[in-house]
Amino acid sequence: MVPGEGLPLQIMQCQKLVVGRKVYMLTHSFILGLDLATANFFTAELPDGARSRKLSRAQQSGLYLIDATGFQLRVWHGEGMGQWVLEDTISVREACGHIDVPRWEPDDRRLPVCVVAAGDNAEFVFFKLTATGIVCCMQLGNMIAEKVDGTMRSNCSNFILPITMVWPPIFPILDVANQEH
After folding, report:
1. Which of 7, 25, 97, 104 could be cross-linked to 32 through a Cys-Cys bond (beta carbons 3.0 to 4.6 Å apart)?
2. How far apart are CA 17 and CA 119, in angstroms?
3. What residues contact 166, with CB distance under 8 A and at least 6 apart?
4. pTM attached to this predicted model
């Protein structure tokens, strides 16, 4: 594919992430960014070999890129301009060692592991084992995967939308004295 070919369709289907005053759009071959302060577009290179990937907002600055290569999950950190630092490499087979996985290798030429979604600050990641359709969630801090679903055979990336919230929730205090009965 020629760079930029089919770009409007890629932008419609790609993951989008807002970090500070920038919008990042993860296309098939690069990140397209928009600086909202200056209304300028920019592009950022992806790490070599990153094929199945998702972006995650970093708490301090920049963003994370989580990608799957073979049976490895790689966690990258960058400032969003194409300079990536590999922070961690995780073996999916080891993380899923306690899960009964009947088959690891897909029959066709698809990737064996597909990154489906990632939480803020790269705290957790959802991924699918392509051969069986098993979807797992892993907290990257302890690197232990838990089975979430075992029947998703199709592209499930449109069905998992992770959110984070404060727990327990904090509700405002009601001013009972000023309420009319």
Report:
1. 25
2. 11
3. none
4. 0.76
The answer to whether residues 119 and 56 touch, using CB atoms and an 8 Å cutoff, is yes
Determine contact, residues 50/44, Cβ cutoff 8 Å. no
Looking at per-residue pLDDT, the higher value among 13 and 56 belongs to 56
Extended strands (E) in the chain: 15-19, 22-26, 31-35, 40-44, 52-57, 63-69, 72-78, 84-91, 113-118, 124-129, 134-139, 144-149
Q: What is the DSSP secondary-structure string of 88-140?
A: EEEEHHHHTTTS--S--S-SSSS-SEEEEEE-GGG-EEEEEETTTTEEEEEET
Predicted pLDDT of residue 164: 60
- For the record, the structure tokens of 50 come out as 């990153």
pLDDT in tens, 117-173: 888 888 889 999 888 888 899 988 888 888 887 665 555 444 565 556 667 777 777
Alpha-carbon Rg for the chain, nearest whole angstrom, is 19
Distance of alpha carbon 67 from the chain centroid: 8
